[in-house]
Amino acid sequence: MFYHVKELQFDARVSSPDPRFATLLLEQFGGANGELKAAIQYFLQAFAARKPYPAQYDMLMDIATEELAHLEIVGATITMLLDGINGELKDAAEQTLMTEFLKGPGKKEELLQQAIVNPQFFALSGGSPTLTNSQGVPWSGTYVDANGDLTVDIRSNLASESRAKLVYEYLLQFTDDPQVKDTLTFLMTREIAHYQMFASALDSIQPNFPPGVLQGDPRYTHTYFNMSDGGDIRGPWNQGRGAWESGEWVYVSNPRDYVEQTDGLTNAPVEGTTETRESTDAMNRQLGQQRSTEVKSAIQSDPNQWSKFADGSRSSSASVPHVEERVKSK
Amino acid sequence: MFYHVKELQFDARVSSPDPRFATLLLEQFGGANGELKAAIQYFLQAFAARKPYPAQYDMLMDIATEELAHLEIVGATITMLLDGINGELKDAAEQTLMTEFLKGPGKKEELLQQAIVNPQFFALSGGSPTLTNSQGVPWSGTYVDANGDLTVDIRSNLASESRAKLVYEYLLQFTDDPQVKDTLTFLMTREIAHYQMFASALDSIQPNFPPGVLQGDPRYTHTYFNMSDGGDIRGPWNQGRGAWESGEWVYVSNPRDYVEQTDGLTNAPVEGTTETRESTDAMNRQLGQQRSTEVKSAIQSDPNQWSKFADGSRSSSASVPHVEERVKSK
Amino acid sequence: MFYHVKELQFDARVSSPDPRFATLLLEQFGGANGELKAAIQYFLQAFAARKPYPAQYDMLMDIATEELAHLEIVGATITMLLDGINGELKDAAEQTLMTEFLKGPGKKEELLQQAIVNPQFFALSGGSPTLTNSQGVPWSGTYVDANGDLTVDIRSNLASESRAKLVYEYLLQFTDDPQVKDTLTFLMTREIAHYQMFASALDSIQPNFPPGVLQGDPRYTHTYFNMSDGGDIRGPWNQGRGAWESGEWVYVSNPRDYVEQTDGLTNAPVEGTTETRESTDAMNRQLGQQRSTEVKSAIQSDPNQWSKFADGSRSSSASVPHVEERVKSK
Amino acid sequence: MFYHVKELQFDARVSSPDPRFATLLLEQFGGANGELKAAIQYFLQAFAARKPYPAQYDMLMDIATEELAHLEIVGATITMLLDGINGELKDAAEQTLMTEFLKGPGKKEELLQQAIVNPQFFALSGGSPTLTNSQGVPWSGTYVDANGDLTVDIRSNLASESRAKLVYEYLLQFTDDPQVKDTLTFLMTREIAHYQMFASALDSIQPNFPPGVLQGDPRYTHTYFNMSDGGDIRGPWNQGRGAWESGEWVYVSNPRDYVEQTDGLTNAPVEGTTETRESTDAMNRQLGQQRSTEVKSAIQSDPNQWSKFADGSRSSSASVPHVEERVKSK
Amino acid sequence: MFYHVKELQFDARVSSPDPRFATLLLEQFGGANGELKAAIQYFLQAFAARKPYPAQYDMLMDIATEELAHLEIVGATITMLLDGINGELKDAAEQTLMTEFLKGPGKKEELLQQAIVNPQFFALSGGSPTLTNSQGVPWSGTYVDANGDLTVDIRSNLASESRAKLVYEYLLQFTDDPQVKDTLTFLMTREIAHYQMFASALDSIQPNFPPGVLQGDPRYTHTYFNMSDGGDIRGPWNQGRGAWESGEWVYVSNPRDYVEQTDGLTNAPVEGTTETRESTDAMNRQLGQQRSTEVKSAIQSDPNQWSKFADGSRSSSASVPHVEERVKSK
Amino acid sequence: MFYHVKELQFDARVSSPDPRFATLLLEQFGGANGELKAAIQYFLQAFAARKPYPAQYDMLMDIATEELAHLEIVGATITMLLDGINGELKDAAEQTLMTEFLKGPGKKEELLQQAIVNPQFFALSGGSPTLTNSQGVPWSGTYVDANGDLTVDIRSNLASESRAKLVYEYLLQFTDDPQVKDTLTFLMTREIAHYQMFASALDSIQPNFPPGVLQGDPRYTHTYFNMSDGGDIRGPWNQGRGAWESGEWVYVSNPRDYVEQTDGLTNAPVEGTTETRESTDAMNRQLGQQRSTEVKSAIQSDPNQWSKFADGSRSSSASVPHVEERVKSK
């Protein structure tokens, strides 16, 4: 259940209307990396976590709820950046939108130029936010990643927070309004804070690599295929140990020959690692059993109940105080 | 700002897993008439209402917030209808999904049949809700209508609640689980309650017809064009007064001739109503001015502030009690 | 079957090209509340109505067909607002688009500015309408609501007409061309007329509330949950009788406590209404049977035939007059 | 303007309900190659053709209108294939959908299996067509191609008709109902007929290759780049004259070396053709001027009027006969 | 398997940045008729062709791969047209985007005007291409047509190449940069070359009309329905032999009467052609058997293997030379 | 430029057709976490990296190209899982799809059940892959993240690889075919290898946190807001140092009060960190300048050329050897 508090989490203010920046800001309202995406993504991930991982569930819902608060801040800012449009549109008979604004040469041109920036602010939403990105593309459920596995979901979140942070960084360069800048800086900073919360949570799950349960086939884990011509550029991603705990990269400079010689890789040798197919199989069985037990043991049945209310048949409805009473005693 | 309460608004329970009904139920989670759509729609509409119409703003946010609670109930129910899948998937090495379930003839077939109902429950979300409708189409921002005018927005909501109610009515016929039925009945009933809240709110705005501000051109308001052949069927929608306060329908049985004779309707006479172009123009001016004033007078400036916090520069940060203190004194 | 008449329903004219207003006007061509949406929505709803409700079927098809005519008017207006582009583009070798227009300082800038308003008018459609809204988002089947129930479908239509009307009202403020204004006023007015047709048709179905067949659970129909903090604002939507025929709103000022005390609402009392679960069950059975019979009795079988042609096997093809004859005798 | 005729163009009939085939058939209702796509595509293309090419405009509107009639036939067939569902759903209290159908063992399973085929027929549209393809994806404006050039648009139509024909060919293999087969065969055949209409129309425009106005750069028109390894396979598409009127294919067996030797093709020689850059430039100028003139000369102005109604200011509205009169005199 | 070559197929260069033209050019990067669409479409069609039609498979993959190279050229050009943006954005603290550019009056306005052209270049992608069309609509899988039949697929490709060619023709008129023009001319020309490759390939398949296997019902192949009023315009598409090999068009001037007289066309006579239902049935059987055999005989089984590698169990992994060796011997 | 090699990177084989698993496998072909998404994402990111970061560009293109090879493997596997369908469909006259398969009781039912799993395999693509996910949703450009910043882009890739790996892990549980399992295991393992390449590359960029350039506002970086009721759960994400290099989490147990006391956070103190606004400002300036310089210094101009071809005007076309010669000398 949710509650709404009328005050914003941050004291968003706007110095003067700016329809163009309102348009850019839509990127964080109804865009692929915006606040709604973040709120819904963590909310969705929380369903699978609720029973087996109540601590992470609490974290996911805390952050999801904060993102809803941020969505509200962004929407409020957009509305204030558009203030005036709605009132003008209401005076439809006088068409003040045309007449009022036309007090100097070029004014009409300027007005139309403003209108055309985001036609839907003027012709559809009447000066309030649209659920679109900065180019009018409607928000889509495809923005949201929730895959029923915390080692994967949290990594999705680290990436989401990174993109959201960068978009605020870009946006900050397109407004001069100090009050809008304050709001954006607050919102940008929270993406950094959330990033670190997720990073901390991922650390607390061990092992967390590879994501999920299954280990890789050691014949293919440490191989780098040089799929492009030109100078063979070497770096920590194809030379030395890189991010591996042990072993080292095996560089295949001519993948085409290698593929042919290994019968389409089916006869590729294990190289670069001390793991064997036997060792990874054992790990697969052990970790699979552990994670499976964690999850399965948390399922309730007969019936499966989400919250911890008393049995529904317990009390007669007579024992419930009348509403007016409850209102008084609050 | 929002708060999350861990208990659901309704004590959702499930007797036993049922992936197929979980699929149908997605229609109310990530579908065009589902709970997310309702929550976001009212939330969006509230931005334009906040300043000029605080009472309606309060109502919109109350209902939006309740719809979020309903979204959570639907998601919890879907998760419980899928319970077991996630745990099995984790045991990836043993592939118990294959082996455990294959204890009798036809079992594997049945399992695959279940899986294929909604492949993404098994291969993507790992047994948690997806942000899609029952056929896998991602939720879309196009589901949401918010047009910056209460006489229009509330009508959009009456229609939304009607559709959501009907979908619950349909869904109720596809489950035998009494506990799921209880939950669906609760949710269906709330759509009816919300409908009446919106109907009451629309009544409280006068005049509310036509939606928006401008009156229709009296030459075209009362005309019914018979655009199809076959018997001319007459009903209250093209005969008599219908839903009009005054006047009556004018039935054009042969639109093609009528269009030609009136020079493409430009010379169509005013018929069926006592309104004139002068009377409607007067109304346009009067109502436009009134509504415009209501909205414009509510805009704050220098700066425009959404919430009622004290001036940000008032207190030095030193005056804020340290966090630990506040936690204690809670 | 449809026929096309080359004349428009309204004598649409344009004083001079205006690519920017053409862009705004796309909102009514390929937008979510535009004419195509309306035409297809009513057309879709008509399928379920055809057999059991032939009078309403006639109305739905009349209005759907008129909306197609309006789509044509909007498309024609957009084309005229873009006239000149297509011809210039054809002169590709001379690139007159660049050279012709560049007769004064700043002309090139202006041209590019125009082009960028809606790049697809210039680089894709060559000066004819695109099936998108004003921001280039392609028309989507999600805009259309048809749910197989007239008490719901007609309410969807009331909302659609309201939004379409408002968008025309907004658009009227962005053009000075008196002839375009005439066309928009005609189209806006027809949305009002259609609204009243639908309102009249809804009245003629009794009972029509709640939408669909099932009544609400009386424990939850009259309750208002105050889901947000701050001053508890009371209005006809949560106080008194509101839009209900009888009974009155029950205001739960602290939903969280109420939910806990009623075991997740499962033990909530019936309040605010004299209905009981027994009375609503009886109504459900009675109305369900009535509506079901209406629909089922209209289905034809062995075979199920849509139109009323004679039995296909009746006449030999020899008896059909040769085409040339028919053309002559027309 | 359009008119609707209640009879279908073809006497569509159905022997017995078949929800699964109804699902497949959606591919031709709301799918990418379906009847709505065709109708809207030709309708859209007609706008640019109306003034300069009235004969082709007539053809485009004739076929567009026939496709609308076909859309109606497909929708009617789907509705008949689903007959019974809507009536059962209305009996919501009795839940006959569950009880009636459960007369033998396995019946409930079968019902659910049917329901899950296309959940939206049962839980959303209540037994009428949805504006989606066979997998529930909403119809999209992206299906429609209209580019303001008949030599291109007609080619788009040849492809559209080909795909639509093939889909009917596939669908015919999934029903045994002879009456449904008759309908599908009729519809499939009309795609062939339309194909030939478009092919005939394309022939009547000369020159029609290359599509549009500009000729290709002769350095690059006749070159085939062998971009894949393995045996160099030669065929009429990279050897000999192929479909060219004159010249022959130039086969570059090693594009990588060729690109380097020609400085990124900027120094590629003219080969395989007798055209020169001068000859193609001349053709560009001549054809561009011709086509541009055709189009520009057809634009009307002051004002630009779509239909040929008399001047709107001519007659006073008094001279228009009263509606009742016109109805009588019809 | 693919290889990447760092050099572009064409020496793409840009004289100076031009964000507006970069926006227009997106139409060929992530638009419906762009290079990605072409690459993926031919790649998709190749799967069904690989085994039964290896020559056409080779052609499809050659052209698909060239289109990938073109996608890279377009992306590189867009990036160069935006050069400077990314570097400025990095200097986030100095906000040089605001300060550097503001050296004269009107400069800030101009900057914002540039930014708003395509907000995502500035606020999302940081100066690199987005996978959208010129109006920000994300690339969609619906752009791609692959139907498992070469007589249909190749026709889809003829249309695709035609549209892509025309869009380049339009785009050429919106840039003055001679180096960008060179690149566009190269790309436009290749669409013409590909068109002729496909046309040549289609000719090489006989019969290729009607597309697919089934012939049309001779009662409906040669009929033209005059679905619109006004002067009956005759042309090669409804008069004479048109594009048919034999027979002639049958013109039905009054479809409504004709439909009624033929009992919904079920009793329509065969006219305009010497084909009979018997002759087309025979052709259906013969061609169906031939094509079916071609395809079925190419399927391998036990197991079905895509490439021609040796049996995977042949060689022990010991026989594969160590990677370092292979690298040396390259 | 790309080259295609006819052999697959991995020797994909299939024991026997399995349309249902083909459907599930679409998730990795045209799904949100599939191979096309990966290929295009890295390809897109490479544009911004090409000039300033050639080493990372090389890595991005190597991996992008390998993902294209994987896309081909997945498509080949789907095609083999569907082998037989295309051949049967071609025999359209005999309708062997119906007759051949109907050799025993229940066979027709089974066939239809198979068909309905993924209607488009049968009625649209004719047995080849569709560019959709497992539920028929078309691939979308929204799946792709490329933001012009390596510290962000690489994090997006870590998340993408994680999800792709998990989906393969899930899919492995739905097939018994050992050869398909081999292919899936190879593909899954490569996601792990790519993950480590990206992790290694991210490590090689210092500093890489926070993503982008700007530091957070120290008043908000270390604060955790407890936005939900119930037991306050503490973990490394809201207690102690967590993933921070220094400082510690500040836990705000009652955000509502805290927000009010700090005037909407505008007066929140710096807590939990030793950073100050001055220290972060300094870092912003320094890092911004460094990164900006790296990028800007790599831009070429006059003209800006992507590849390193010689000046296009250098050699006359005469000096280029004739194609036939080049072919010989290869």
Listing every helix as H and every strand as E from the N terminus to the C terminus, the arrangement of chain A reads: EEHHHHHHHHHEEHHEH
Number of beta strands of chain A: 5
Q: Beta-strand level of the residues of chain A, as a percent range?
A: under 5%
Q: What is the assembly state of the chains in this entry?
A: homohexamer
Low-confidence stretches of chain A: 312-322, 324-330
Q: Helical element count of chain A?
A: 12
Helicity range of chain A: 40-55%
Largest sheet of chain A: 2 strands, parallel
In the sheet with the most strands of chain A, the strands line up as 3-4
Describe the protein in words.
The structure is a homohexamer of 330-residue chains. The first copy, chain A, has twelve helices and five strands. Chain A starts with a strand and ends with a helix. Chain A has helices spanning 19-25, 35-49, 54-81, 85-90, 96-99, 107-117, 119-123, 150-171, 178-203, 255-261, 277-296, 323-329, and strands spanning 2-4, 13-14, 223-225, 250-252, 304-305. Chain A has 330 residues and is mainly alpha-helical. In chain A, 48% of the residues lie in helices and 4% in strands. In chain A, helix 2 runs antiparallel to helix 3 (54-81), helix 2 (35-49) packs antiparallel against helix 8 (150-171) and helix 3 (54-81) packs antiparallel against helix 9. Chains in contact: A-B, A-C, A-E, A-F, B-C, B-D, B-F, C-D, C-E, D-E, D-F, E-F. Chains C and D meet through strand 1, strand 2, helix 2, helix 3 and helix 4 of C and strand 1, strand 2, helix 2, helix 3 and helix 4 of D. Chains A, B, C, D, E, F: Keywords: Calcium, Manganese, Metal-binding. Chains A, B, C, D, E, F: GO terms for molecular function: metal ion binding.
